[in-house]
Design goal:
By secondary structure, this protein is of the alpha/beta class. The chain has helices spanning about 5-10, 20-30, 35-45, 50-65, 95-110, 115, 135-150, 180-195, 210-215, 235-245, 270-280, 285-295, 305-315, 325-330, 355, and strands at about 155-160, 165, 175-180, 200-205, 225-230, 250, 300. α10 links the parallel β5 and β6.
């Protein structure tokens, strides 16, 4: 069944909402080749855009219902013009292969905006067709190739162990937090690795308890945990745990985020670091602080648009801190987390206190 005038008439929007009888929709939708015909209609630029939009929605609902190997209840209709069938027959394997061959190029083409705008193909999500590995791959490829212009990335991280209600905006999160799905989120991250879209995968801002929970489910352990770390927040407990588990620690805020709203001068105006820098001759406080992180075996994420500072940040090799320097930095510099994360803490949310958020890793 190719898309034809009959398909166009079935999908054409009318001035007043109408509904097809369930039997009529079921007969049409279960016809061999129907799913492929509708998808081809979405891809055809010569067809009226409103019809293509209706086809995209119809394809979403239709595929969700019929992709399963056994008949399943049809998803609730997204388009008011189309009524759901009570149940749908599975799509034949041969037709599935043709759909697979067409859907990813379609999503990556300029015409793919019709699907992303109207919530069809990439936005099916974790149910129906969206739970199938090839479908998740299509969505990931769309993001990596379409937005980043890359076939793969070197490192792909879960940014924060927090989940917000859909549509949440701004920084006021009271009543907008949901329990974090550790198992499901890491499985999706592992998918990036298995599909060759990420050379390494990891996490960011995870404490010891959350890492322990993740490792219970992981088939691929995280390569990296990217956390706040500097001489004024040394993260000794977390670093020891990551070292034992073979997880590399990467340090953000290596200079205590001097200049940020939540930052401090605990590093850049530290009397001890100033004393050590003077003793080293031409070294700066920033270089001493960065060298300390380097000697802990962690990588450093520096942020500067100043070329001179960028050059100096690279000049931390070819010299060392003495054992006495390291001991004094461990014992004499007060420890305090810079970014406390209070925005994620509330009485009705999954994190009731800052200590709970950070797994009490003081």
């Amino acid at each position: 069944m190719e898309w034809n005038q009959e398909t166009l008439q079935f999908l054409s929007p009318s001035p007043a909402p109408r509904r097809q009888p369930e039997s009529s929709l079921a007969d049409a939708a279960n016809r061999p080749g129907y799913a492929l015909a509708v998808l081809r209609l979405v891809a055809e630029p010569s067809v009226d855009e409103k019809i293509r939009q209706a086809a995209a929605v119809n394809f979403k609902n239709h595929l969700c219902a019929r992709w399963a190997s056994t008949p399943t209840p049809h998803d609730a209709a997204v388009d008011a013009d189309v009524a759901p069938a009570a149940s749908s027959a599975p799509i034949p394997d041969a037709e599935k292969e043709q759909i697979r061959a067409l859907i990813v190029p379609l999503m990556l083409s300029s015409s793919a905006r019709i699907q992303t705008t109207h919530g069809a193909i990439p936005a099916v999500g974790g149910r129906g067709a969206g739970s199938r590995p090839w479908f998740r791959r299509a969505g990931l490829q769309l993001r990596f190739r379409g937005k980043l212009g890359l076939e793969c990335v070197d490192l792909y991280l879960i940014h924060f162990p927090a989940r917000l209600k859909e549509g949440t905006e701004g920084s006021y999160l009271n009543g907008k937090m949901l329990p974090f799905d550790m198992k499901g989120t890491w499985e999706a991250t592992e998918e990036c690795s298995k599909l060759g879209l990420a050379k390494s995968i990891g996490v960011s801002n995870f404490g010891t308890k959350k890492l322990s929970q993740l490792l219970m489910h992981a088939t691929i352990p995280p390569a990296v945990n990217q956390v706040e770390m500097n001489v004024a927040w040394q993260q000794e407990k977390l670093r020891e745990y990551c070292r034992d588990k073979g997880i590399h620690v990467s340090a953000w805020s290596p200079l205590a985020a001097h200049g940020a709203p939540w930052g401090s001068l605990a590093v850049m105006e530290s009397p001890l670091l100033t004393e050590i820098a003077v003793a080293k001759g031409i070294k700066t406080v920033a270089q001493v602080a960065l060298r300390w992180i380097y000697e802990q075996g962690s990588s450093i994420i520096v942020k500067s648009f100043n070329k001179e500072r960028m050059r100096k940040s690279l000049q931390i090799l070819g010299w060392e801190l003495s054992q006495e320097d390291l001991e004094r930095m461990k014992l004499q510099i007060p420890q305090r987390r810079g970014f406390a994360g209070e925005i994620f803490v509330s009485e009705d949310g999954p994190y009731k206190s800052v200590d709970e958020l950070w797994d009490e890793d003081a």
